[in-house]
Amino acid sequence: MTEIEEKVLAVHPGPLRAVGIETLQLNLGYKCNMTCKHCHLDAGPSRTEFMDSTTIDEALMVLRDYTIDTLDLTGGAPELNPHLRDIITEARRMGRRIIVRSNLTIFYEQGMEDLPDFYSENNVEIIASLPHYAETGADRVRGKGTFSKSIAVLKRLNSLGYGTVPGKKLHLVYNPMGAFLPPSQTDLEAPYKKELETSHGIVFNCLYTFANMPIGRFREFLLLSNNMRPYMEKVKSAFNPDSLGNLMCSRLINVGWDGALYDCDFNQALGLAVEENCPRHIRDYDHAVLSGRKIVMGNHCFVCSAGQGST
Questions:
Q1: What crossing angle do the helices spanning 146-159 and 185-200 adopt, rounded to 10°?
Q2: Which residues have C-beta within 8 Å of that of residue 283, sequence separation ≥ 6?
Q3: What are phi and psi of 69, to 5 degrees?
Q4: Are strands 23-27 and 206-209 parallel, antiparallel or unpaired?
Q5: Nearest to 181 by CA among 277, 304, 53, 7
Q6: pLDDT higher at 184 or 192
Q7: pTM score of the predicted model
């Protein structure tokens, strides 16, 4: 039994279990136009993993056959999967809520220039990475020049009604720049909104703050800087029992680029498949079994249950 499982059992009546599946999260591949320092998947331009059309069809069949409200598309850069538009069109036809997790700079890539318009036409909800509201902070995490590109894209999204028109939701994501936990989501949202609107005329709906996972590139940083032990001690000491009822994994099933099933995208990065009593591929999907499955946990889960938690 892992340390996090012991911690959960001390404050929770039994192991952590899913309480349903409200979101089908598809990781469309690890290829990305960026190599962000905090990426848990080591995504980047050289990655070749893509979800193929067969696996996509299997996932859309699940979305069609069961009452799963939300389709959550992530990567890498999900926009680089050549089937993205078909997926969105079909999910839109089903009347599902569609989320795309975007790094914003992807819209500068060849063939992506009209994607903001496509997203707008299909009421796609955008969750966009913007590690800081200041250029220095954002570029430190994502690379020089990325902040200015992101600002330009956010202005374009605003011009399409994102952040202001009902049904066109635009959310931003903050990640800490180092080996520390993020401040309160509520406390940080106000300065984010004030600074972006005052300095750039940009508005958005909500800010999400996520602590960095000690896996992938961030793990490499922690090891190289001798911060792994202090960081893990920090997140363990911030364990919040009240966060357990709102963890993403309790209402989500994650589908890897190859169709394998996971409790979350972080478990996917670590190769921790759903528990052995469950189907482990989207082609064998069993809604009833997966909806009440035991969550597979590792000590990285301390990050999601620290402070306000990752919801």
A1: 80
A2: 58, 259
A3: -70, -35
A4: unpaired
A5: 304
A6: 192
A7: 0.95
Question: Is the pLDDT at 292 greater than 90, yes or no?
Answer: yes
Quote the CA–CA distance of 237 and 73 in Å, as a whole number: 32
From 302, 294, 241, select the one nearest 10 (Cα to Cα).
Answer: 241
State how far the Cα of 112 lies from the Cα of 204, in Å rounded to an integer: 22
Measured distance CA(51)–CA(259) in Å, rounded: 8
Six token digits for residue 284: 């064998």
What residues does 100 pair with on adjacent strands? 73, 126
3-state SS of the chain is CCHHHHHHHHHCCCCCECCCCCEEEEECECECCCCCCCCCCCCECCCCCECCHHHHHHHHHHHHHCCCCEEEEECCCHHHCCCHHHHHHHHHHCCCEEEEEECCHHHHCCCCCCHHHHHHHCCCEEEEECCCCCHHHHHHHHCCCHHHHHHHHHHHHHHCCCCCCCCCCEEEEECCCCCCCCCCHHHHHHHHHHHHHHHHCCCCCEEEECCCCCCHHHHHHHHHCCCHHHHHHHHHHCECHHHHHHCHHHHEEEECCCCEEECCHHHHHHCCECCCCCCCEHHHCCHHHHHCCECCCCCCHHHHCECCCCC
Amino acid at 303: V
pLDDT single digits (tens) 198-231:
999 999 999 999 889 999 999 999 999 999 999 9
* Residues 51-61 pLDDT 10s: 999 999 999 99
> CA Rg, the chain, in Å?
19
For the chain, the domains span 3-304
Look at the chain and count its residues: 311
Query: How many Cβ atoms from other residues are within 10 Å of residue 159's Cβ?
Result: 11
CATH architecture of the domain 3-304 equals Alpha-Beta Barrel (3.20)
Residue 38: which pLDDT band, with cuts at 50, 70 and 90?
confident
